[in-house]
Design a protein that fits this description.
Length: 228
């Protein structure tokens, strides 16, 4: 009973950690600005880079990604070492699945619908990257490379996020097929594609602006504080 309550409590903890609006407190601490009042008014890393500059934007990205990574590492690796009989596996129809990734999903929910921002937040990209880097590091690196190249070529963060998400979905399938463990990792593949679809959903307003030609380009110019 105690283990069950602990595991349930971890889901709430994952949501609370995911809810921490890193871009907001970084903006207030270093530049005395409210990120939700600048740029696209989004609290995610792309708007943080656009508004606060590359260094603070990357700091926001790292911390937002770490939110999801941390809860997975805690549940999948640390707690099993510290607590007897603690596991993140479940057997359904003779198939055993590792559900530690679900803790990362709760961090994504917190990031997107933050308790501290009246249930508003980012677009799920950074914490999704945190999950991918934690569970499939090479695919995470691939996503970063694809995002960077696409943004440099197009200047659109939304396009970079879209291509990076596709790279994760396709790259993961290819990796598991090559490794010969696709069936064993099927749950991870399914969750990854759910994450990808959610990212696409969160970017629908961006896609509409891209079609209209009104989408904001990624510019690393003056910080918001410099413009005041």
């Amino acid at each position: 009973m105690g283990l069950i309550l602990l595991k349930i409590g971890l889901f709430f903890l994952a949501y609370l950690i995911g809810s921490i609006p890193n871009g907001v407190w970084i903006g207030k601490l270093f530049l005395n600005i409210n990120l939700t009042e600048h740029g696209s008014k989004n609290t995610g890393a792309s708007n943080a880079i656009r508004v606060m500059g590359l260094k603070l934007g990357i700091l926001t990205l790292i911390l937002d990604a770490f939110k999801a990574s941390f809860v997975i590492i805690l549940a999948k690796y640390l707690f099993p070492l510290m607590i007897n009989d603690f596991t993140t596996t479940i057997t359904i129809f003779s198939k055993t699945f590792d559900y530690s990734i679900v803790y990362g999903l709760f961090a994504i929910i917190g990031h997107t619908f933050s308790l501290f921002l009246k249930f508003k937040g980012g677009k799920a990209v950074a914490p999704s990257l945190g999950i991918v880097i934690t569970l499939t590091p090479y695919i995470g690196i691939l996503a970063i490379v694809v995002y960077t190249i696409v943004v440099l070529l197009t200047k659109y963060a939304s396009v970079g996020s879209t291509f990076a998400a596709f790279a994760v979905g396709i790259g993961t399938i290819v990796q598991f097929l090559i490794q010969g463990n696709f069936q064993k990792q099927l749950f991870v593949v399914i969750v990854y594609w759910l994450m990808i679809l959610f990212i696409f959903y969160r970017h629908i307003p961006n896609y509409k602006r891209l079609i209209k030609g009104t989408e904001t380009k990624m510019k690393l110019g003056k910080k918001a504080k410099d413009e005041q």
